[in-house]
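Entry type: protein chain
Record version: 2
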Amino acid sequence: MTELHKKVLEEIGKRQLAPRPYAYFLAKRSVFWAFAMLSVALGALSTAVIFFAVHDQMTTGGRGFDEMPLDDVLAYMPYVWIISLGAFVASAAYSVRRTRRGYRFGTAKLTFAALGASLVLGALLYAAGAGSATHAFLTRNLPIYDQLTRSSESRPNAPDAGFLAGRIIAVDSPNRIKVLDFDGQTWIVDLTGAEIQVGNLLADEDVAVEGRRTGAAEFRGRLIRDWD
């Protein structure tokens, strides 16, 4: 036995070291793989809500991003979910790196792979309605969530900017209705020549109107949609 061997054995004895069973390393790797898969799944859910938020902004009575000034576009971006997606992608990449052979893959490759998986799975979840369901659940059960996001439910009326949302309280004619907006003001809305995307103009229906303000309580619509 060489001097080096003796020193190693003495050091092992001093520290009271003992070999760990294979099950320990298997469990450790399993935890990292499970955490990586969970991170990708949560990243996919974040992606689904991002898709929902963008679709909601562009189709639920509001203006499309191409019709909005840059500051409005930035105001409606779902930053909470974008940050969450980034965090989950980074978590997934880190977890895979900590697995047995994960060190072989570069951080950039793992990050892009996790992002790609989250986007693909997120698109599938969005198509299945998971994005809107998650948003609705958090809106109902987590008060602070509504303060961190700006969805169609919290979009303010902006008649001066060409957007009006509220409930029809009277239908005077096929081209003239009265709308009580969500801020409590009554508007006379002229729909002459407007594109009407609702099945029937009926009282007690929630609608969104795009157009321009023509008076203190008058509005000229060019497009009317259901308020979803």
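Comment: The mean pLDDT is 79.
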